[in-house]
Amino acid sequence: MDQGIQIRTERLVLRGPTPDDLDAMYALYRDPRAMKYWSTPPHQDRAQTKALLDRYIASWQVDPTYFQLTLDGKYIGNVGKHRDDEVGFILHPDHWRQGYIQEAMTALITYLFETTTLERLTAEADPLNIGSIRMLSGLGFTETHRASNTFCINNQWSDSVYFTLPRGDWAR
Predict the structure, then answer these.
(1) Do 7 and 67 contact (CB within 8 A), yes or no?
(2) Which residues, in sequence order, are CB contacts of 72 under 8 Å at separation 6+?
(3) Going edge to edge, which strands form the sheet with 66-71?
(4) Rounded Cα–Cα distance for residues 160 and 126 (Å)
(5) Are 139 and 110 in contact (CB under 8 A)?
(6) Residue 71 in 3-state DSSP?
(7) Which of 38, 73, 96, 104 is deepest in the core (most CB within 10 A)?
């Protein structure tokens, strides 16, 4: 399968999804630590992850902006534009606190502002997810507002904090 666009950073390759990503994606999306602040509960079976991967592959054919994040050729997460102007990311916990998401997001933001007409990028995070909030702020995103009870996962409500990064504010 042709992955088309690839973005290379110092340590990472951001590329399109392939069916071969299934096992590594399942390992990530079933991990409760990784899914703690995600908008769905951890995946219960491989079929659930396969359906997600199939959607990523189909979407990639139309809008190649949601990337598989790889380190030394191995899938470790996702980073990209979810829909409209919203960006997001998820990383396997084995790779947390090593700067990979900041590195990938820096490359992604540059790519999106160079290849699209988007005037801004937006992001959403759980207010309890301090690491993601700090990373987004460090990239120049500013908080726009907050909302309560935005996601109900396993009968537990969580809140959201929303961010924006105008094109004119990106100077990397």
Answers:
(1) yes
(2) none
(3) 7-8, 12-15, 66-71, 74-83, 86-91, 120-125, 156-166, 142-153
(4) 5
(5) no
(6) strand
(7) 104
> What are the helix and strand counts (H, E) for the chain?
5, 8
Show Cβ contacts of residue 117 under 8 Å, excluding neighbours closer than 6 positions.
none
Tens-digit pLDDT profile for residues 64-107 = 999 999 999 999 999 999 889 999 999 999 999 999 999 999 99
Q: Determine how many CB atoms are found less than 10 A away from the CB of residue 15.
A: 21
Query: 21 burial class (0-12, 13-18, 19+ CB within 10 angstroms)?
Result: buried
Only one residue has tokens 């110092």, namely 10
Measured CA to CA, the distance from residue 104 to residue 73 in angstroms comes to 15
97-125: burial string, b at 16+ Cβ within 10 Å, e else: eeebbebbbbbbbebbbeeeebeebbbbb
Query: DSSP labels for 3-44?
Result: ----EE-SSEEEE---GGGHHHHHHHHT-HHHHTTSSSPPP-
Q: Are 7 and 107 in contact (CB under 8 A)?
A: yes
